[in-house]
Specification:
84% of the residues lie in helices and 0% in strands. It has three helices and no strands.
Length: 86
């Protein structure tokens, strides 16, 4: 009984990590799309791209929560610059 519970708990944790990874990857794509249509000053675009790249590295490292936090900063910055992420 305890072994079954542990296996179920491990499976739930593994699947939840995959869900966050997919969520983060989707948010990165949204930032990419917003940047493609945005008219930003080169320094502004570079700042957003740097944050986006950091989020991508965090996602690849399995740090999904950190990735989502970083991509949230990029989305906020884009919104403040007049190019909200949809």
């Amino acid at each position: 009984m305890i072994k079954q519970f542990l296996w179920v708990a491990i499976a739930v944790l593994a699947l939840s990590g995959s869900a966050f990874a997919a969520e983060c990857a989707g948010e990165i794509k949204k930032v990419d799309a917003a940047m493609a249509s945005a008219s930003l000053h080169p320094s502004q675009a570079n700042t957003v791209k740097t944050i986006r790249d950091m989020a991508n590295r965090l996602n690849q490292a399995g740090r999904e929560q950190d990735c989502l936090q970083a991509i949230g900063h990029a989305k906020t910055l884009l919104a403040n610059l007049g190019s909200p992420v949809k």
